[in-house]
């Protein structure tokens, strides 16, 4: 019998991005039944799907072989309490199924006995003979051992190791793994959640549990009212999923307009040289005050020192919103930049205070399922990197492509990161370009787009100097790409 799973779970089982399966649904290659996918249909589409290819078998073996490693347990397995609760739910479900099967079996046996008693009095009655053969044959077929549905077994295992959370009213879904709480899991899946402190003090991550169970993971100081408790409200930052399936009601940010302006005093955690002319500035927020922002946005940085006094600079965030305490910025050597002068002259160093104000900007990922094409010039790569990491967390697009132009020889300071993405992900490809002429470099990228993968049914994200952005924008519009599918940011 075919097993029904959600699109999210189906993508896990066969080891592909959720966006790839959604594309199969749109083309008619994969059919949905009330929003669910049949494992039989999955296996027809992916006949080579197996435990080994999905990575699940390797993962289970790793857990078994290193079961006493605390770090591994925390990363891959829920707590003992959560595991016990999920196993209990699975055992209850199995017990209910067994009870029903036993009752049906007893009913069939009783029917078979009645038919044979009738046949004893009327042995030549062909109708009763046919009925007796049908019941006996049906019972034998029901008791026969069918081939094991591999995907159904994998789904049962995943329900214990991971929990699937559905968000209402948006319909978004995310997984809870290991010791992660609901807030951490939602952010790592790219959701635009409402939150503040992240430690149970402010109550901004309050949500209502519609179905399923949650388990408290840490103490919290925020006081829920008795009415809120009776209605099922809880704090995402202090709870994890106790059941394998959980439905939460919450509001998500629809765009930059829904993210409030914040001001946070951060500390310089590290300054790292990425290339002779580029450094990575890492700021860390306090534990009780994290920056809420969308991938692709910028902030204003303010600091002071004896040499410059008060200084300020607007910079694009290069990190993913899922790591909200650690904010990354790429800083290039530039005599006209106050931040560059402070970073390269060591006027700004480890432990120094930097005030972050923001976020700002509307260069954010549009919600949709079209392939994504990113084009960056020099430090235009910073917000593009944030967008790529956010898109990877969403796992909802069929493919991603990056074209990165630099105007100096050492400009590709994260070429290894691009290579790592490409090697780890089948749906990611990239091209690196160097040209001292920004317009000529943009035209080179435009030619590469046309030659390699050009399709007007993509969303394009362009970031860099005005000449770079305008050249690519004009080329895409001339090729027939609707303006609504081109997003640009001039830096």
Key phrases:
491 residues, 5-stranded mixed beta sheet, alpha/beta, single chain, 6-stranded antiparallel beta sheet
Describe the structure.
There is one protein chain. The protein is an alpha/beta fold. A six-stranded antiparallel beta sheet has the order 13-12-15-10-11-14, covered by helices on one side. Strands 4-3-9-5-7 form a five-stranded mixed beta sheet. β12 and β13 form a beta hairpin. The chain is elongated. About 5% of the residues have low confidence.
Walk me through the topology.
Blueprint: E1 4-6, H1 7-14, H2 18-27, E2 36-38, H3 39-45, H4 51-54, H5 56-65, H6 70-76, H7 80-121, H8 126-143, H9 150-161, E3 162-168, E4 173-177, H10 182-188, E5 206-211, E6 214-216, H11 226-230, E7 233-235, E8 239-241, E9 245-249, E10 262-275, E11 278-284, E12 298-305, E13 309-316, E14 326-332, H12 338-344, E15 353-360, E16 372-377, H13 381-394, E17 400-406, H14 415-424, E18 428-434, H15 438-452, E19 459-464, H16 466-478, E20 486-490
Parallel strand pairs: 3-9, 16-17, 16-19, 17-18, 19-20
Antiparallel strand pairs: 1-2, 3-4, 5-7, 5-9, 6-8, 10-11, 10-15, 11-14, 12-13, 12-15
Helix pairs in contact: 1-2, 7-8, 7-9, 15-16
């Amino acid at each position: 019998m075919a097993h029904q799973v959600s699109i999210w779970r189906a993508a896990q089982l066969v080891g592909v991005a959720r966006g790839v399966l959604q594309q199969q649904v749109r083309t008619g290659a994969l059919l949905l039944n009330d929003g669910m996918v049949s494992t039989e249909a999955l296996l027809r589409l992916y006949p080579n799907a197996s435990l080994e290819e999905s990575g699940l078998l390797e993962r289970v073996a790793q857990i078994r072989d290193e079961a006493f490693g605390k770090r591994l347990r925390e990363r891959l397995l829920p707590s003992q309490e959560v595991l016990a609760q999920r196993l209990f739910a699975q055992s209850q479900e199995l017990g209910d199924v067994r009870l029903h099967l036993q009752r049906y079996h007893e009913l069939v046996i009783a029917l078979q006995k009645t038919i044979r008693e009738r046949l004893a009095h009327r042995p030549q009655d062909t109708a009763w003979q046919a009925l007796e053969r049908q019941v006996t044959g049906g019972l034998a077929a029901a008791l026969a051992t069918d081939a094991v549905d591999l995907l159904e077994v994998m789904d049962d295992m995943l329900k214990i190791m991971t929990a699937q959370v559905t968000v209402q009213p948006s319909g978004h879904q995310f997984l809870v793994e290991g010791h992660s709480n609901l807030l951490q899991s939602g952010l790592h899946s790219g959701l635009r959640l409402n939150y503040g402190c992240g430690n149970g003090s402010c109550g901004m991550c309050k949500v209502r549990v519609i179905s399923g169970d949650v388990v408290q993971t840490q103490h919290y100081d925020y006081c829920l009212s008795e009415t809120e408790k009776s209605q099922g409200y809880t704090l995402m930052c202090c709870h994890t999923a106790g059941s394998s399936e959980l439905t939460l009601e919450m509001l998500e940010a629809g765009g930059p307009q829904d993210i409030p302006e914040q001001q946070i005093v951060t500390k310089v955690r590290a300054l790292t040289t990425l290339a002779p002319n580029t450094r990575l500035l890492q700021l860390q927020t306090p534990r009780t005050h994290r920056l809420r922002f969308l991938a692709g946005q910028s902030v204003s940085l303010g600091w002071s020192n004896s040499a410059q006094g008060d200084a300020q600079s607007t910079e694009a965030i290069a990190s993913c919103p899922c790591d909200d305490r650690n904010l990354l910025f790429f800083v290039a050597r530039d005599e006209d930049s106050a931040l560059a002068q402070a970073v390269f002259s060591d006027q700004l160093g480890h432990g120094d205070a930097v005030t972050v104000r923001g976020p700002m900007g509307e260069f954010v990922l549009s919600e949709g399922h079209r392939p994504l094409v990113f084009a960056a010039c020099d430090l235009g790569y910073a917000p593009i990197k944030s967008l790529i990491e956010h898109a990877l967390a969403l796992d909802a697009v069929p493919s991603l492509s990056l074209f990165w132009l630099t105007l100096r020889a050492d400009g590709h300071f994260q070429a290894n990161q691009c290579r790592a993405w490409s090697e780890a992900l089948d749906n990611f490809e990239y091209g690196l370009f160097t040209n001292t002429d920004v317009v000529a470099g943009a035209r080179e990228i435009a030619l590469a787009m046309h030659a390699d993968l050009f399709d007007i049914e993509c969303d394009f994200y362009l970031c860099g100097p005005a000449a770079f952005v305008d050249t690519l924008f004009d080329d895409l519009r001339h090729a027939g790409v609707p303006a609504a599918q081109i997003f640009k940011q001039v830096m």
